[in-house]
Amino acid sequence: MPATPINWKLPHTYNQHVIDEINIAVKWFDTECHNLLKLDRTKLKTAVLGEMTQLQHEESSKKLLFAIYALYYQDYLPDPLNIQFSDIENARWVIKDQKYEVPKGPSDPRLQDAQPSNYKF
Q: Is residue 37 left, alpha or beta, with left meaning phi > 0 and alpha meaning psi from -120 to 50?
């Protein structure tokens, strides 16, 4: 099952940093799940951990991408093939970086007191 592309024309307004990094995540999850032939959470978590490690070693500035991967790894992203605006809001909330514009709060109340250090490299 291919990943569902995000309809950026909906009433949400995001800057180009958000759009670019979420599109990278959608493509990466689509490719990985296709390579696994089915959604195997354990194998996908292993692959996600590898991507997170790679981002850390590259000293990448893709903090939102890292946060999306971390949210999946910690079971806060229920369906990586169907990333929702609520998932994007959660990722923006946990990193609290003005580059991505910080929302008023997370969509998932469990993330209200999330420590940004857990979602940054």
A: left
- pLDDT tens digits for range 63-102: 999 999 999 999 999 999 899 999 999 999 999 999 999 9
- 9 part of a folded domain: no
Count: domains in the chain: 1
Q: In a 3-state reduction of DSSP, which class is residue 79? A: coil
| 39 in a structural domain | yes
Q: Domain for residue 40, yes or no?
A: yes
| Angle at 19 (CA atoms; ends 62, 28), nearest 5 degrees | 65
- Which structural domain range is residue 61 located in? 22-119
* Residue range 33-67, pLDDT digits in tens: 887 766 688 889 999 999 999 988 887 689 999 99
For residues 83 and 68, the answer to whether their CB atoms sit within 8 Å is: yes
